[in-house]
C-alpha cells in the first residue's frame, strides 16, 4: 500500500469515519464520528458545517447529516447502513463531502474524501481493513481535500 497522500490537493480539515461490515445484517455500517480543523468559510472565522453526502458510488444513495452552527470542530455521531454483499464492496467507492451552510446563497464546499479500491495511502488501508475484519468497527481520521468527488454532482 502506498502510504503517501496526494500533496497537490489543498488540505481542508479532517474527518473521522468508522467502517464496519456486518455479516449478520449483510451490509456496511458507515459512521461519521466528527470533524476537526475545518477550513473557515464564514467571515467570522468559523463555519456552519454539515456532512452533505455519504454515498457508495454506483448505488446513488445520498444521505444528509444535520448542520453544526459556528464551529470548525463539529461532532456528528451519525451512522448509515448500506445493504450490500461483502464481495461487492471490493468494487465500490465511498464518497463523503462536508459543506458550510449559508442562508440566502449557495452553500460552500469545505472538503471531501473518497475511500475504496482506487484510493491511496490511509484511505485505501482503511477500506481494506474494513473488508478484512468483518464485524469489527474500524475508525480512522482522514484528510479532507478541496477535490469534489465526481458522483456528488451527478444524480
TrEMBL record:
Keyword line: Metal-binding, Repeat
Gene3D superfamilies, alphabetized: C2 domain
Database matches in InterPro entries: C2_dom, C2_domain_sf, Rabphilin/DOC2/Noc2, Synaptotagmin
Keyword Glycoprotein belongs to the record: no
Residue stretches making up the C2 domain: 11-142
UniProt entry tagged with the keyword Metal-binding: yes
Pfam families associated with the record: C2 (PF00168)
Xref: PANTHER family: DOUBLE C2-LIKE DOMAIN-CONTAINING PROTEIN BETA, RABPHILIN, ISOFORM A
Protein name as catalogued: DOC2B protein
Lineage summary: Eukaryota, Metazoa, Chordata, Craniata, Vertebrata
Amino acid at each position: 500500500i502506498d502510504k503517501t497522500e496526494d500533496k497537490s490537493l489543498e488540505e481542508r480539515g479532517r474527518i473521522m469515519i468508522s467502517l464496519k461490515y456486518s455479516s449478520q445484517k449483510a451490509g456496511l455500517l458507515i459512521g461519521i464520528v466528527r470533524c476537526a480543523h475545518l477550513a473557515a468559510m464564514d467571515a467570522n472565522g468559523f463555519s456552519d458545517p454539515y456532512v452533505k453526502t455519504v454515498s457508495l458510488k454506483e448505488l446513488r444513495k445520498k444521505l444528509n447529516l444535520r448542520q453544526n452552527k459556528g464551529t470548525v470542530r463539529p461532532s456528528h455521531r451519525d451512522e448509515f447502513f448500506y445493504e450490500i454483499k461483502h464481495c461487492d464492496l471490493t468494487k465500490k467507492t465511498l464518497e463523503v463531502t462536508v459543506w458550510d451552510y449559508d442562508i440566502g446563497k449557495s452553500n460552500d464546499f469545505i472538503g471531501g474524501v473518497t475511500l475504496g479500491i482506487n484510493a491511496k495511502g490511509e484511505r485505501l488501508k482503511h477500506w481494506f481493513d474494513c473488508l478484512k475484519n468483518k464485524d469489527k468497527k474500524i475508525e480512522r481520521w482522514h484528510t479532507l481535500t478541496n477535490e469534489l468527488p465526481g458522483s456528488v454532482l451527478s444524480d
